[in-house]
């Protein structure tokens, strides 16, 4: 039987029933999702799902998939006639940088494949042209400002401390799942005790 949520928090995620330790077989690499634990203190990553784009011994880099912003892309692309283009906050680092992921390598060259049906970056001008022309839908491309970054060994330490759970990325998660449901969806799909985590309310006092 699960112990009280207050005890989970006070134990700093060490209780097995609170943070199931089933992600060991997965390794940190490009194309992995980082799923935040339910009550991560950092407001920049509250219930976030991050697509890891790069991981090496010197640094790690990813994009938060489920923090859609109120602003739209035409605010950043004054020379283009673009309206109502959704944009996401990829993380707290350098919000002046814009990036994108897509699922159409046949239309956008030079992208880096992160997993089946998921490509990071590529010919930005071509991507914008396709969006403006209506030839690329928003279930095929996602724009981000800012990014999430870690220094050498930092992400490994955070994973070891159970701040993040790992799950393979799928194109459906990136492009099709509503951002407000993504965190719960990924945990539910992991199955087992993770499904219990997916039901936790934002406020632990409500449990």
TrEMBL record:
It comes from the Bacteria. SUPFAM superfamilies: VC0467-like. GO terms for cellular component: cytosol. It holds the Pfam family DUF179. Belongs to the UPF0301 (AlgH) family. PANTHER family: UNCHARACTERIZED PROTEIN YQGE, UPF0301 PROTEIN YQGE. This is UPF0301 protein ESB04_04430.
């Amino acid at each position: 039987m699960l112990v009280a949520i207050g005890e989970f928090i006070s134990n700093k995620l060490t209780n097995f029933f609170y943070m199931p330790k089933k992600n060991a077989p997965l390794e940190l690499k490009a194309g992995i999702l980082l799923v935040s634990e339910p009550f991560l203190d950092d407001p920049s990553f509250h219930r976030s799902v991050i697509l890891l784009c790069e991981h090496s011994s010197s640094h790690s880099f990813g994009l938060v998939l489920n923090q859609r912003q109120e602003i739209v892309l035409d605010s950043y692309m004054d020379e283009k006639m673009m309206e109502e283009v959704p944009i996401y906050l990829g993380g707290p680092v350098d919000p002046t940088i814009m990036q994108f992921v897509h699922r159409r390598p046949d239309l956008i060259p030079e992208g880096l494949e992160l997993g089946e049906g998921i490509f990071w970056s590529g010919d930005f001008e071509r991507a914008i042209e396709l969006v403006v022309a209506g030839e690329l839908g928003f279930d095929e491309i996602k724009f981000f400002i800012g990014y999430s970054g870690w220094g050498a060994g930092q992400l490994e330490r955070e994973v070891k401390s159970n701040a993040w759970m790992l799950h393979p990325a799928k194109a459906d998660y990136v492009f099709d799942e509503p951002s407000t449901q993504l965190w719960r969806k990924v945990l539910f799909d992991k199955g087992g005790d993770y499904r219990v985590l997916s039901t936790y309310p934002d406020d632990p006092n409500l449990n």
